[in-house]
Design a protein that fits this description.
about 280 residues, mainly beta, Beta-galactosidase, Chain A, domain 5, 9-stranded antiparallel beta sheet, 5-stranded antiparallel beta sheet, about 5% helix
Amino acid sequence: MRCRPCGHAGPSCSRAGRSSTRGARRRATKPTTGGRAEGEDWRKAGLDRLKTTVDSVTVEPGQGEAKVVVRSKVAAPDVSTASFEQAMTYRVDAAGTVRLGHQVHPVGDVRTLPYLPRIGVSLAVPSTFDRFAWYGRGPQDSYVDRKDGTPIGVHSSTVDEQYVDYYRPQDHGNHTDTRWALLTDGRSGGLLVSGAPEVSATPYDDLDRAAYPFQRVRNDGWLTLHADHAVTGMGDTPNPVRERYQVRPDRDYDYSLTFRPLSADEVHSGLPRGAR
């Protein structure tokens, strides 16, 4: 499992004909019906090619758990004026539970963007962990400004079933008002995350590179679980996303998530304790 900060998302054509880049990451195409393509601003700031440079790592052994603090800078290698400073604090106990505290500080030109597609972390999980379940809105995807017809409950599917076959590949499968989400292979193991109000799972990380469905490139050997603190809404054509549904680029973020392995019973049932 790899855990990385998420500031970019794939583009979304329903946002006033725009695309977005999430985490910043969402859809990023030219506008087709007026409005501005925020994807152009996000690409200029490098949100579609963020890389993490570690500044420091400290480890503090404790009673019953270890604490690891990783401070780093997240930016595009070819952009010097836009970045995120972050601290990720991991508290790991003997049972394998990881409590992650994430502090994010946008720097420079990032703070002048119209908004960010998302703030959160993404986890690379083996592609065999293709059974997805969550307690939140579903079964269709939902966003902070698109919740009608998506009742809160326990939902399950495969990761492939989360993909939405839009005429142009784009951001898909988000689920809002989420309490927990999990991925499992149904046989040997699984991962549960809680504390993320927005979650999604996908086999495609670079959909904003594909103009047509046949240009999609599936991740080679892994699936991506997005565990997000905030995701910008969708808006509609030709109306932009309302300000109250935007992830602001000019403020700091501080939130926490919890990850834990599934028990054998949870793996076989595909649901965590108390959800069956």
